[in-house]
Amino acid sequence: MDDDPLALRLASTIRARRGGLTDAFATVDGLTAWVRGQDLSPYLDTATFTADERIRVSTVALRQAVRALFAEAVSPHPPSPADSGALPPLPEALALVNSAAAPMHRRLVWSDAPEQHLEVHGDRLAAALANAAVDFFAGPGLPQVRVCPAPRCVLYFVKRHPRQEWCSVACGNRARAARHYHRDRQRGGSDAAEWS
C-alpha cells in the first residue's frame, strides 16, 4: 500500500474492519498521523505538520471528491459500497479537486545552481493531494482501477497483473473462504432436502 499512488492512499483512508467502517480522518490526530506518514514534498514538510479542525474538514471533503472520481473510474461497475451514497456528483468533485490544485506557482531560481521554488497560495495539504489526484486520473494507470469485490472490502486498487482480482492477498483469501462456505451451505441444504 505504501507504493500505491498518493490519490489511492488518500481514497483508502476509509477502510472496513470487523466492527464496520473506519476513517483515518475522523479526528485531527488521525489526519495529522496520516499526513506525517506521507511524502508530500515539495508542497509540505510533513514532519512538522499538525492538522486543525478546519484542515480536517476540508481534507475530508477533498477525499470524498477523490473517491467520487474513483467511483467514476470504475463505472459502469458499482463503486465502493463504503460511501457511494454520500459522494458529491462528478462535476462538483472535479471542481473541488481543480480548485484545490490551482493555487500554486513554480519558478526556477539560479544562484549557485538551479533550484525549483514552489509557492502555494492557500492550503498546501489540499494542493499536494489535489495535484496527486490530477496526476493519477490523467495518467496511464486509470484503466487498471478496480473496486475490490471481497466481502466487506471498500477499497479501490490498481490492477498490477492480469490475474489480480482483489486489492490484497487477505481479501482474496476472504473471498475464496466465503465462496467455499456458501457452496458447502448450498450442498448441505440440498442434502438435507433429499433426506426429508
Task: Summarize the topology.
Elements: H1 6-11, E1 14-17, E2 20-23, H2 28-36, H3 53-74, H4 90-101, E3 104-110, E4 114-120, H5 124-137, E5 145-147, E6 156-158, H6 169-195
Antiparallel strand pairs: 1-2, 3-4, 5-6
Question: How would you portray this structure in words?
Answer:
This protein is an alpha+beta fold. It has helices at 6-11, 28-36, 53-74, 90-101, 124-137, 169-195; strands spanning 14-17, 20-23, 104-110, 114-120, 145-147, 156-158. The radius of gyration is 21 Å and the shape is elongated. The termini are far apart. Mean pLDDT is 87; it is low at 190-196.
Low-confidence stretches: 190-196
Number of helices: 6
Looking at the structure, the CATH topology is Jann2411-like fold
The side-by-side strand order for the widest beta sheet comes to 1-2
C-alpha end-to-end distance = 51 Å
Q: Count all strands and give the number.
A: 6
Give the class-level CATH name.
Mainly Alpha
Q: Sum up the overall morphology in one term.
A: elongated
Compact overview of the structure:
This protein has a single domain (6-165), classed as Jann2411-like domain (Jann2411-like fold), CATH 1.10.3300. Helix 4 packs across helix 5 (124-137).
